[in-house]
Amino acid sequence: MPPPLRAVIGVPDDLKPTLAVLNGRVAEKMGRSADAIAAYHAASETKDSASAAQGALREIALRYATKDITRPAAIDALERLTASWRGDETE
Question: Given a cut of 80, is residue 31 above it in pLDDT?
Answer without folding.
Answer: yes
